[in-house]
């Protein structure tokens, strides 16, 4: 699915954009601010990825409401999130990307997370289990109460984080990765 440059879509519920067909790709065309924009307008706004082998690439995600619980939820294997940018516009998200234990072999490549300076975000990436996740080419700036990357409640095996381009937390806890 190719999404045209400049296209804007409102994500207003947990089911507005449910990626539940295995093997599809959603590819944004354009660069910078001309990329397609998905604006989250409710705390339950969410892109739910529940089928395997899905790729989402080159989209601009904006938080248009305070306390978006999780902008992207991944519960399937072999998902690729490539060159996504998340910008807090109003308030902050609680977690930007949240996984379940089913998110085996997740690839997050080129995430540019530009969070709010105010408190309210737990993590940019929250991993709840999964095997073989790779996070690379990461740019992350926010106020992370828990950590930029939070491995929580369920162990992740073979997690690889490399080529971090930039990390800054505005929280006194000053934690990049926490398990």
Please give a structural write-up.
With 179 residues, this protein is mostly beta strands. It is built from no helices and 21 strands. The strands form three sheets. The protein has a seven-stranded parallel β-sheet with strand order 1-4-7-10-13-16-19, with no helix packed on it. The model has no long low-confidence stretch (mean pLDDT 94).
Task: Please describe the topology of this protein.
Layout: E1 2-3, E2 8-11, E3 17-19, E4 25-28, E5 37-40, E6 47-49, E7 55-57, E8 60-63, E9 70-74, E10 80-82, E11 85-88, E12 95-99, E13 107-109, E14 112-114, E15 123-127, E16 134-136, E17 139-142, E18 149-151, E19 160-162, E20 166-169, E21 177-178
Parallel strand pairs: 1-4, 2-5, 3-6, 4-7, 5-8, 6-9, 7-10, 8-11, 9-12, 10-13, 11-14, 12-15, 13-16, 14-17, 15-18, 16-19, 17-20, 18-21
Order of helices and strands: EEEEEEEEEEEEEEEEEEEEE
Main pleated sheet: 7 strands, parallel
Strand order of the largest sheet: 1-4-7-10-13-16-19
Which value, in Å, is the CA radius of gyration? Answer: 15 Å
Spans where pLDDT lies below 50 across 5 or more residues: none
Name the overall outline: globular
**Distance between the amino and carboxyl termini:** 36 Å
Helix share, percent = under 10%
Structural class: mainly beta
Report mean pLDDT, rounded to a whole number: 94
Give the count of helical stretches.
0
Number of strands: 21
Beta-strand percentage range? 35-45%
């Amino acid at each position: 699915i190719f999404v045209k440059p400049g296209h804007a879509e409102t994500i207003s519920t947990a089911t507005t954009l449910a990626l539940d067909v295995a093997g599809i790709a959603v590819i944004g065309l354009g660069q910078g601010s001309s990329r397609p924009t998905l604006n989250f307008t409710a705390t339950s706004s969410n892109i739910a990825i529940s089928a395997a082998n899905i790729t989402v690439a080159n989209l601009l995600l904006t938080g248009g409401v305070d306390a978006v619980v999780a902008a992207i939820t991944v519960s399937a294997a072999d998902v690729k999130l490539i060159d996504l940018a998340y910008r807090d516009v109003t308030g902050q998200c609680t977690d930007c990307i949240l996984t379940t234990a089913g998110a085996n072999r997740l690839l997050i490549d080129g995430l540019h997370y530009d969070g709010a300076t105010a408190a309210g975000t737990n993590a940019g990436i929250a991993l709840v289990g999964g095997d073989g996740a790779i996070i690379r080419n990461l740019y992350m700036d926010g106020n992370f109460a828990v950590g930029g990357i939070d491995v929580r409640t369920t162990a992740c095996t073979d997690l690889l984080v490399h080529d971090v381009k930039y990390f800054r937390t505005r929280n006194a806890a000053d934690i990049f990765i926490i398990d």
